[in-house]
Amino acid sequence: MSQYVYLYLIGYGINYGDGMRLVLVALAISVVIIAVGLIYYIPLLQKPVQSSPQPVQNIQTSQQVREGSEMKFIFGDIVVSAILPSGAVTITGGGSTFVNVQMQAWAQKFRSVTNGLVTVNYQSIGSGAGEAKWFDRSLDFGASDIPISNATYSRLVAAKADFIQIPIVAGSVVIIYNLPGWDENRCGPLRFSGDVIADIYLGKIIYWDDPRVKELQLDTCRSLLPHEPIRAIHRSDGSGTTAVFTLYLSDVSEEWRTRIGYGYTVEWPRDAIGYGEGGRGNEGVSAKVRGTAYSIGYVEYAYAIVNKLPTALLKNRDGNFVKPSPETVGEALKRGAKSLPPPNSYWGDVPKSFINREGPNTYPIVGMTYIFIYKDIAKNPDTAKALSAFLKWVLTEGQKPENIVEGYIPLPTELVRIAITYVEQGLGG
Questions:
Q1: Which of 97, 111, 389 is nearest to 238 (CA)?
Q2: Could you tell me if 93 and 143 are in contact, meaning their C-beta atoms sit under 8 angstroms apart?
Q3: Are 247 and 104 part of one and the same domain?
Q4: Within its chain, how far is the Cα of 33 from the centroid?
Q5: How many domains, the chain?
Q6: For the whole model, what pTM was predicted?
Q7: Are residues 227 and 282 in the same domain?
Q8: First vs last C-alpha separation in the chain
Q9: What would the pLDDT profile of 217-266 be if each residue is shown by its tens digit?
Q10: Which of 105, 108, 141, 235 has the fewest CB atoms within 10 Å, counting from its CB?
Q11: In what order do the strands lie in the sheet with 191-192?
C-alpha cells in the first residue's frame, strides 16, 4: 500500500515524509472524534424510551385494588387504612331521603375505587322506615337525619343489642315555594321567620297577603303577595327531615313545642282546614311544590338545587335573613357539638346543638345524617370489611369537595376523628 500512497503524494507534489505526517494527523483526529461520539451516545442507548410524560397518580387510583388488599384513605391530616373483603360484596342500607343524593354519589364512586369489589345498594325509604328495617335486621345499615329514636333505643337496650351510630355528612333543611307573580329579580327570595312558618303549618296564617308575611318582605314588593291560601306541603312518611324541621319549629314557637313537638311523624293542623298536603320523601315534597301553585314545603337543600326550586331566606337568631350556603351552614356546624356521646348511648341532644344557633351569618335549620350498625355484623367478616372500608372512605375521601354533592356540607374534623374511632371499635379494620 505504501507505494500507492507514495505515487499519490508525488502526483500532488508532496514529498513522502510530509505526506505521511499529514495522514497520521488525520487518523488521530478521526480517532478522537469517534471516541467523543461513543462517550455521548452509549448512555443514551441505556436509557428507556419515553413517548410522553407520565401523569402523577392520585393515592386512590395508584393503589393496587384486589381481594383482601389494604387501602389508605386521607382527609386533611387524617390517614386511615382499610382491608377489602376476600370477594365481591353488596352492602344494603336504607332510610334517609335527606342523604339519598349524596349517598348515591358516594356509592357509585366507591364502587369505582374498589374496581367493583364493593357495591352499596342504598334504598331511599325515609328515616323512620330505615330505622325500623335496620332494627329488624333487614338492612346492613340504617340511615336517619336524627340519631336513634328514644323508642328504638329502649328496645335495643331491652334486647341487649350492641350497636354503633355515627354521623356521616351535614346539610340543611330549606323552605321551597311556588308563588306565581313573585318577581325574584326585583324582590329577591321570599323571607320568612320561624314563628311565621310555625303559624302557617299550625293553620293560624291562611293567606299569602297576611300582614305578618307581608311585613317580612321588601316594602316595594309587598303588593305582589296575592290573596290566595298558602298550600303547605309536608312529609307523609316517617322522616328525619321532618324531625329536623319540627325540632326547629319547637325551638322558635312555644305553641308548636307544647302542642305538636318534633319527631319522624307529627300532627299537621293545617291539613284539618284543607290547606295542607303530604308528599312521600324529599322527592315527593319537591314534586308537589313544583306542581302546586301558591305552595311552600321543606326539603333538604340538595333537592331544591336539583329541582331548580327557589329557596326562602330565613330570619336567624341574630335577626338577619340568611340563605343556605356552605358558609352559613358551616357557621352552625362551628357552634354545634364538638364531641359525641359513646356510640351505643342515647344521642337525643346532639341534633339540638345545630338548630337555631347564634351568629350574624348562621343558617338556622342545620342537621347531620347518622348511620346505625349492629356490631355483630362482624360475624360475616367480608360484609364487615366492606362496610368498614366504605364508611372509612366516606369519612375521609368522601368529605373532600370533589366528592361532596352541592347542597351537602362536610363534617367538622373533630367529629370525623371520633366517627372513625367508633367504626374501628365496632367493625375493626
A1: 97
A2: yes
A3: yes
A4: 67
A5: 2
A6: 0.82
A7: yes
A8: 85
A9: 999 999 999 999 999 999 999 999 999 999 999 999 999 999 999 999 99
A10: 108
A11: 191-192, 313-315, 321-322
* pLDDT per residue as tens digits for the range 396-418: 999 999 999 999 999 999 999 99
Residue 421: C-alpha distances to residues 224, 388, 415 (Å): 54, 11, 10
Q: Amino acid identity, residue 291?
A: G
**Do 264 and 205 belong together in one domain?**
yes
Say if residue 290 is in the same domain as residue 343.
yes
Residue 65 has pLDDT above 70, yes or no: no
Q: Is 122 a domain residue?
A: yes
> Do 85 and 28 reside in the same domain of the chain?
no
Residues 6+ apart with CB under 8 A from 415: 167, 337, 338, 340
Asked if residue 14 has pLDDT above 50, the reply is: no
33 and 97: one domain? no
64 burial via Cβ count (<10 Å: 0-12, 13-18, 19+): exposed
Write out the residue range of the structural domain in which residue 28 sits: 2-46
Amino acid at 372: F
Give phi and psi for 272, each to the nearest 5.
-65, -25
Q: For 169, phi and psi rounded to 5 degrees?
A: -165, 160
pLDDT of 51 above 50: no
Q: Whose grid coordinates read 320561624?
A: 194
55 occurs within a structural domain: no
Q: Quick check: 370 pLDDT over 70?
A: yes
pLDDT value of residue 69 = 84
Instruction: For residues 86-97, give the mean pLDDT.
Output: 96
Query: In Å, what is the CA distance from 12 to each residue of 8, 16, 25, 373?
Result: 7, 11, 18, 103
Instruction: Write down the pLDDT at residue 45.
Output: 35
Tell me: do 291 and 330 sit in the same domain. yes
